[in-house]
Amino acid sequence: MIRRCCRRALLVALVAAACGVRGAWAQSRLVWDSVHSAALEHNRLGDNATRRLLVYLPPSYARSPGRRYPVLYFLHGFTSDPVEWVDGSYAGLNLQSAMDSLLAHDSMPEFIVVMPDANNRLGGGFYTNSPVTGGWADFVTRDLVDYVDRRYRTLADRAHRALAGHSMGGFGALVLGFANPERFGLLYSMSPCCMDFVGLFGPTSPLWVAAARASTWPVEGAPAGTALVVALAAALSPAPARARGYGTLPFEPDGEGRLQAQPDVIARWRRGMPVGLAHRL
Length: 281
What we know:
single chain; about 15% strand
């Protein structure tokens, strides 16, 4: 069921929001909740292991206490926040208004949407387990899903559980879904970032030099994009025992400032990126 409804719903919801569609149903609810994650305890950044959740409950949820619902887990991007799914930050999207409008016009079945707060001191953990940033993969696939299935009336199986996201969240939807096919029956990735060593992450990018100079973060005056490289290193190649504690880099400057490829680190990053995980499937 969720394969049929969620793929169409995600596409149509974005179109509806962009076109300014606003439905007459005002019976849905947005609920702030929180979940404590054992996977995020003792992370080296000092981020709170109790994470906020923004939950969309469809119109019939309150009046149909015997009914259970499919669930969409919606992952935000780098330096973002779950409230940005409803305040217009994502291409004008107000998820509640778009969902209510589609339901009012009988364009899709009802389902729950769970939007977790995955921001951290570095701007995001890329939904990946790391001894530096914490167990962000286990947070979503274990702690969050188990909590939602206990707390809300869900259809608690992979056929009724979807995972989607934008940018860093699109990266997360792919890597978590590829690694946990028994948990999620549908993946939907919007503009996923950080898929390979191109663009900002190309072998000659000045961001590698800027990131190599950062023993701590943030660093005042660092070029735009350096934070993304630092956060990825903390997620994909963490090195908590080194002086530059956040991680090693795939391209490191030599004594004269020339970038040198680090094959072991490049391979490590690729194993954690969606393309590498897809090949292992």
